[in-house]
């Protein structure tokens, strides 16, 4: 960790990391081709009904939960690269199964494969990325991974929109998109296996901890450590009060409560994505000067400021000059992106440091489960707020949610300093 006030030299992240990010971009682009349409595709276009669509997501969630719990110890005992490649293979099979699907059985099988793939992949990808870069490059590497994932999904959504716009039969076009999604995971499998370290330490040179790393700390042991427990709680809160709100709640809030046109809603969302890409190189040197716990705590502070910009736009109202109203909404998008970079550059380095090498897989699995819990509960909470509060009240509630996340990260910083 770089001390505050020092200037951290830029660390080259290397060819292996570049290959990994290229493959991840392609896989994320494949996900972007399909993920907004799955429930519509299953229930309406395939004619299998809402129960089949619900069954798909239930099967996916259950399989993801089980695979993450199993994948963590597997990644710790063996190689995270093998677990990650197995997860990628399950994703490829699962998405490809939706292409010819015409029955509930195939839909459920797809859900199980996709869920298992995500569970295994996210239990191992932290270790895979960490082994591809020098330790001094961790913070930049995980920030770039976050940007690449979002950029790929965004590009995939654009491609899907263009493909469906000119399609005579949406169901036929979507079948090809699901097949393309499955194929897009194949290069990621190859690259994960290709960047695997080829050398192992000689038996006589193994560290003293290696003898007991076969078993490693259990999930319960990890959660008994107060800093790790707070970090996992923070992960769930970041998903609940931050990431799901900008994806699900804020667009609805702008459109339904503030009479913002769909074109401007899209512009604000796009501004957030572009700001992530533009701010990362600008903020990288400053981020690396901060202790990780300080950077992590700064994330929800920036989100609270961003939601305050949204509150200002709501209070300004429709009669305010367009430059003021939309300027505040664009400021929201940019400041929120800065908070995202704080999270992405600091969360996983802390997870790696506090778990230790022998428990990275288990810690990653816990982080994945916390994230899934947050992404499942965040949208309903946000949509409930928008349905029952005014525009200003909704923005204020979002800011209070960010404040709640800050209290956890502040406690984390205090506990880590002891």
Describe this structure in words.
The protein is mainly alpha-helical. It is built from 14 helices and no strands. Helices cover 81% and strands 0% of the residues. α3 runs antiparallel to α13 (360-388), α11 packs antiparallel against α14 and α13 packs antiparallel against α14 (391-416). Residues 1-8 and 201-214 have low confidence and may be disordered. It is a multi-pass membrane protein. Keywords: Cell membrane, Membrane, Transmembrane, Transmembrane helix, Transport. The chain crosses the membrane at residues 19-42, 54-71, 83-101, 107-129, 141-164, 176-195, 228-246, 258-282, 294-317, 323-343, 364-386, 392-412. It is found in: Cell membrane.
Q: Could you tell me the strand content as a percent range? A: under 5%
Number of E-type strands: 0
User: What would CATH call the architecture of the largest domain?
Assistant: Up-down Bundle
**What is the radius of gyration?**
22 Å
**Main beta sheet, described?**
none
Mean pLDDT: 85
- In which range does the helix fraction lie? over 70%
What would the CATH topology of the largest domain be? Growth Hormone, Chain: A
What's the helix-strand series?
A: HHHHHHHHHHHHHH
Distance between the termini: 16 Å
Name the CATH homologous superfamily of the largest domain.
Answer: MFS general substrate transporter like domains
Number of domains: 2
